[in-house]
Structures are given as C-alpha cells and as structure tokens.
Amino acid sequence: MGRGLIADDIISQIRDRVDIADIVGHHVALTKAGQNLKGLCPFHHEKSPSFTVSPSRQIFHCFGCGAGGNVFTFLTRITGASFPEVVRDLGRKVGVEVPESSTHAKQSAHANRLEQLNQAAAAWFQRNLLDDRAGGGARDYLAGRGIEPETISRFGIGVAPAEWDALLKALTQQGFTQQELLVAGLITARESGSGYFDKFRGRVMFTITDLRKRVVGFGGRVLGDGLPKYLNSPDTPLFKKGQTLFAFDQAREAIGRTKTVVVVEGYFDAIALHQAGLTHTVATLGTALTPEHIHTIRRFASHVVLLFDPDAAGVRAALRGLDLFVNSGLGVKVITLPAGDDPDTFIRKAGPEAFAGLEAGAPSLLDYALEHSVKQAAAGSLEGRIRSVDEILRILQKSEHPIEREERLRVVAERLGISQQRLIERYPALLSGTKRDSGHQPVAPRPPAAVPLFKGSPEERDLALLLLQGKLTAADVRRLRPDAFTVAACRKLVELALANVERDGRVGVRALLDVAVDDPDCGALATELSLREEHFDDVAAHIKACFDRLDLKGAEQVLRELIARLKVAEREGRWDDARQLNVQVNELRMRKAGTPTAGVVSLVKE
Fold first, then answer.
1. Cα separation of 526 and 67, whole Å?
2. Which phi-psi region, left, alpha or beta, contains residue 340 (left: φ > 0; alpha: ψ -120 to 50)?
3. In the chain, how many domains are there?
4. How confident is the model at residue 606 (pLDDT cuts 50, 70, 90)?
C-alpha cells in the first residue's frame, strides 16, 4: 500500500495521467531549457532560476536548495496538504477514483490476478508460435510480411490456434477460473447460455503492454479471409483502448530522445517501422485518437507525425485529430503515402530514408485539413466554398495563438479566392482580442551554478548518476552491491534499484524513480543526479573503471580490518588465529597486486 493506505496502483494511475509540467506551471513561471524546464524555486528565495522540471522523467529538483521529488511531493510542499489529500484531489481532476482502503485491497488483488492471467495467456500464445504443428502457418505468414524472428520475440507475437476452447482449457488447467477469463476478455459466452469459447481463434496474436510493461490486452489478426480481420481485447479493469497506444512502452525511450512520436493505425505498421529503425512509432488500437492519448503523448513528445493510409478512411482519421490537437502545444504533421501503400508496405519497399524525406516535406495537420477542404470545394459556389471551411474556422477560433489564427485565415482566403475581409466578417471572433506583440524578446538568464548535494567519492556519484540515467547494462547491474557504497543515500538507491530489475536484467529507471523520489534517505539525491547533464566520452569504460575502483576500495577496507584483527590476536597470544589471519592478509595482498590501482578519473565536475 502507498502512503495513507492508498494502493500503489491507484497512485500510479494518477501519476501516469498527470503532467508535472502542467501542475508546476500553475505555481511557477517555467521556461524551456534544453529537454527540461526552469524557473525560480518556490521553496527558497533566488534571483536566478535553479528550479528544474523534467517532463520526461516527471520529477523536479532545485539545485539551489536541494528540494526535489515528483508531482505529489511538489503539491504537498506547495499547498501544505497531506499526501492522501493531494492524491485524492489529483484523482478527482484526472478521473481516477481513490477508494477506501478496504475496498481497494480487493480491487488491487483482482488487478494483480488479472495481470497474472494476461501474462500466462501471452506466454501460451508465444509457445504456440514456436510449436511445429500449431505455429507453422503463422510463422510462414509473418515471414511473408517481412517480420524477423528478433522482432517477433521483442513484441511478444504469438498465435491462437483455430480450436474453439484451446486457451480456455490451457489456462483453467493452470488454475484460472472461467469467470477470470471472461473478465479478461479472453473467452466469450455461448449464445445458448451454456459454456464458453475462446475469443481469439486462428489469429496471429499481438501482446499489448502498458507503460509499466504489464500485459494488459491482446490484438489478433485473422489467418485467412475470416472477419473481422482484426480483433482486440474488450475494455477490462486493466485495459482501455481509448487510453492505450500499442508499442508505447517500446517507443518511450526513442520518443523522449527525439521528442517526436509517429502515430500509425495498425499493429503491423508499428512493428514494421520499429524493425526499420523508426522506434519512436506507436499505433492506435482500432479507435480514433482520444484526449487521453494526446495527454500521454504530451508527457514525452513535442512533435507528432500522423501516418495514416491514403484512402478516405485515413483522411477522415487525420481530420478527426484536428480538434484534439488545438492548443495541445504539440506540433503535428501529416504524412501522405503514395497511392496503394500503407506504412507497412512503404517502409519495406522504400526504406527509412524515403520515410525521412516524406516527413521533411509533410504539411502541418492544419494545412493538410485546409488543403483537403479546398479540394472538396473547388467546384462549388462561392458560398459553398466558404461553408466548406466552416468547421476548420470554428476550430481556429479555439486557438490561443492570434498570430496563427490570422495567418491561417489569410491562407484560407488565398486558396479559396475569397477576400480575407469577407472571412473576417463571417468570423469576427477570429481576430478579436488579439494582442499585438511588442517585438521585445526577454533576455534569457544565465544558468546558475549547480550546488552539488553529493559529497561522496566520484565513483559512487558517477555510478548512481549513470544508474538513474539507464546506462547500466544487465552485466553492470549484476556488479551492484549496496555494501560497496559508503554514502548512505547511494546504498539505499542501489537497494531500490536491485528491487526494480526488469526481465532483461536492466533496472527499470521509471519504476526506480517512482519509489526513490519519495524515499527520505535518497529522494534528494535521486532527483539531483537524474537532472544533472553530464557527458562521458566512453560510458562503458567509465562504468567499469568506477566498479573496479569500488572493488579496490572494498578490498583495502577488508585488508585493514584483517590487519587490525591480526594485531589483536598477536597481542593476546592467539597464535593459531594469528597464523590464519596472516594467510588471509597475504592472499589478499597478492590479489591486490594483480588489480589495477590507477584511480578513477571522473568527468563530472566537483
């Protein structure tokens, strides 16, 4: 349970729906500073901004006073409210109910059971694909679509056999009940009212995971000519189609790095683009984009590329997004593929370089919508041409950017061959309230010198920093030992990291931050090091050098302790103990002689 007896998964749901930049922005004037935002710290007096907010990591830290944490920490400090009060208030704002603890315990247990069931189903689908009899047809189909074995494994692709109750039998034999399978959307009740059958049959299966890498649902593509061609899990306690984007968990790192997300409509489209190296791609799940999707995207990206099929349905999908993106703060482009191509076939045929060329020349979503409306109205009457862009002009009225409104109005007038004044008279609100820019640009303040919180050795600091930045490999993680760190905050951070190791052996940085920022022993250290921008010429070599230095220091400490114990044994006349200790001292000295003793040169400024 979280603090105040509020369950951890409820806290996570709220945290996942809240953007810390929006919340902090209501209290602090923030300006862009690289990938982060900066402002004057609200918790201490300062003249130069040292208060930093990271939208990608959803944390804040002040390099002046050391305050740091997540959105809950910020609001408890800024408002004085208790943690449960802050959680419940945010929950109401984002539509997440925070139940009483007794109810909540049952819900949490139910969600955990559902997660286990989905994981078991995903493993079963994947085993089927590897089976000679059950998976042969699906493997041939995937090979024909150009999907490589490594991609199949990475995306957890499997197959559901064409049997009526194969999954039902397999999972009930594992101890899951029919009611649990029904709630998970894996089986369907027979129309006769007697018994159940598998929802997914004779389909290539795609595993849908959330940003916490939990298996939350499935999608299936029929093998053959059956209908529907694609079938998704229904909404369940773990899965909401209108809130979930396929492959977002795989794309999050690349999206955070490029600040751009490519949105496609299908599983194969997303997978093909990932396989081609465009790993900042996600897909909708049989629904149009929703406000919840936009909210999630905004947390990681500032630019969106919509890549839809070039047919009428694809055009409608792009136009539906227009209203959603107004005032979202996101720059949106629309890529139009050549006739007859979809993203999957285009990327396999033309390659990522051709895609980059299309993206470079892609129009904005608004320009795309205007162009479409102008083409629709080209043969109409004057009034018909005006009416054809009414919907776009209504959306323009909602824009908070008066210069953009005026410029787009000019473009519409030019394209339709109508005087701009005529359109202004039709929509007077478009230009009302426009504030003229004075033309003066604020002078950007000089960045403040960071006040380092960390007072330990360079190697401990650098390992903690690189750990929090996700740079440690699985082999590096295996070398982590809390007792090798002399700084208490580092020891606690490493303990939390080892409790959040993912299946690939690496530390889940987001999961680590979620627990570390609230920890009284290491929270301030976690936020400070997470937001420090440091460069290492050879990261892997520096990590190894840091570990070697820690090992050397550990060996020196053990040697000192052994020598101290040897002296005591000699003084007390315990000659047998002294001989054994002397052997250990000599062995350790010999091992040290074969260990490089060069010190670690840290590239982080003191």
1. 11
2. left
3. 6
4. very low
